[in-house]
Amino acid sequence: MRLGLMGLIENMSRVRALRACLGVPFFWGSRWVWSRIPARMHAFSPVRAYGGLLHKLARLRQERVQSNWTCFLRNRAEIAYIAELGRAVRDGGRLSVAIFGCSTGAEAFSTSYALRDSFGRIQIEIHASDVSVESIETARIARFDPAGRETEGLSTEEMEALFEKAPDGALVVRTRWQAPVEFAVVDATAPGLAERAGVHDLVLANKFLCHMPADRARQCLRNLVSTLRPGGVLIASGVELEVRTAVARELGLLPDTAAIEPLHEGDVTLRRGWPFEYWGLEPLDRGRRDYALRYAAALIKPGANPFRRAAATTEATRKRA
Q: Where are the beta strands (DSSP E) in 149-273?
């Protein structure tokens, strides 16, 4: 039996009547209190602990539902990181990328765009997949509404670089960015994922594991790691940090310590969601003993790899350990 305040709250939160009667008023009151705490105070231990409690409750009381919302260049720090990995592949080499939970394709085309400096110098393959047949059909068309959410936040220069305008006003992804990408319907939770999806140098698994119960998310993350070549890099954001940390420890994955802060802070939608949304991302806590493994969105599978920078980071991480 779980003891203490959090154990009591967890047990109470599982009772639907108590959630209905107490949960909503408590959350509204907490939002009022939280909105009046200056952002600069969020790093203080008592405030962080209060936010952690609220987030724990959010994860317990909110229903988890998969979302197909996506947008181009959502995490610009991640785009820069992928570009750096591409530049680190030796001339004449090959870079195989797998993107799971690709939704309607914005992340896949953004990844292709991120690797633009490596086009022609190395061979690039991007294998994008999603469990939704409808999303994959939309992705293959590569047409987007100029007023849709997928293009939110793009500058005029980025819009011009990414799209051509169709006669009907739709935005069509330029052929250059479509060329390396192939789409498929794949269930990342199914057994034998590596046999179905192959193995790759870079695997992206962003913003869909958080919508799964913890046990299912852990199993799915193990599946995803099976599609990673030794020395390859997994980028997994939008996942419960306890789930990612546990699987990283279990499978011996190493954090890319140089990328922790930029990747963690890069997706402002995740950061703004904390602590009141179950998918929200907590602020960095540099005082934690497990800081590197808990907050690293980029994890390296030990072994020889095509990335000069990632290899150096792996070695540095081994020495620290």
A: 163-165, 171-173, 181-185, 200-205, 228-235, 254-255
Percent of the chain with pLDDT over 90: 72
pLDDT digit string, tens, across residues 132-184: 999 999 999 999 999 889 999 999 999 999 999 999 999 999 999 999 999 99
Is-contact 235 205, C-beta < 8 A? yes
Q: How far apart are CA 148 and CA 134, in angstroms?
A: 17
In order of 21, 51, 151, 152, 211, the CA distances from 27 in angstroms are 11, 12, 32, 29, 20
Name the token pair of 186.
């794949």
Q: How many residues does the chain have?
A: 321
CB within 8 Å of 172: residues ≥ 6 apart: 142, 143, 144, 163, 164, 165, 166
Q: What angle do CA 169, 74, 105 make, to 5 degrees?
A: 55
Tell me the two tokens of residue 117: 């400096």
- pTM to 2 decimal places: 0.88
How would you list the strands of the sheet with 163-165, edge to edge? 143-144, 171-173, 163-165
**Helix, strand, coil fractions of the chain, as percent rounded to 5:** 50, 15, 35
> For residue 118, what pLDDT is reported?
97
* Token pair 């602590």 in the structure block, residue: 275
**Structure tokens, 15:** 């009772």
Considering only CA atoms, which of 295, 302, 297 is closest in space to residue 318? Answer: 302
3-state SS class at 74: coil
Phi (first) and psi of residue 147, to 5 degrees? -100, 5
Asked if 102 contacts 280 with a C-beta cutoff of 8 angstroms, the reply is no
Neighbouring CB atoms inside 10 A of 196's CB total: 15
How many other CB atoms are there within 10 angstroms of residue 160's CB atom? 12
The helix-helix angle for 214-226 and 241-251 (nearest 10°) equals 40
- Res. 21: pLDDT tops 70: no
Mean pLDDT of 271-296: 94
